[in-house]
Design goal:
100 residues; Arc Repressor Mutant, subunit A; three-stranded antiparallel beta sheet; 5 strands; WH_DNA-bd_sf; CUL9 protein; WH-like_DNA-bd_sf
Length: 100
């Protein structure tokens, strides 16, 4: 029986996946929180507000988290995910406006 050393790249890969899942969860929470308050919002305004909240490290009133870098692609990916899940919807006549 021969023991092989533990493969560190697998641990690093799991940590990266976990970090990406946490980031996606935070972004989805931010998107839903913002739209719950606003009820409807132009997608561009939503992206800017989420990015601003990420930079400031604010999840909402009184809730803080570590600020992190997020890009519009990250936010748009989460918007598409939430649209597919049925949490958000687009207006029929104005598809660039999102509703919660």
């Amino acid at each position: 029986l021969r023991l092989l050393p533990q493969q560190r790249y697998l641990q690093a890969e799991r940590a990266e996946v976990s970090a990406l899942e946490r980031k996606r969860n935070i972004l989805c929470c931010l998107i839903t929180r913002i739209l719950k308050v606003e009820k409807q919002l132009h997608i561009d305004n939503l992206v800017f507000r989420v990015i601003d909240a990420c930079q400031k490290g604010e999840l909402g009133p009184g809730l803080q988290f570590l600020s992190f870098c997020c890009h519009s692609v990250d936010v748009l990916s989460c918007v598409l995910h939430l649209l597919n899940q049925g949490y958000l919807r687009r207006q029929e006549k104005r598809p660039h406006v999102l509703e919660y």
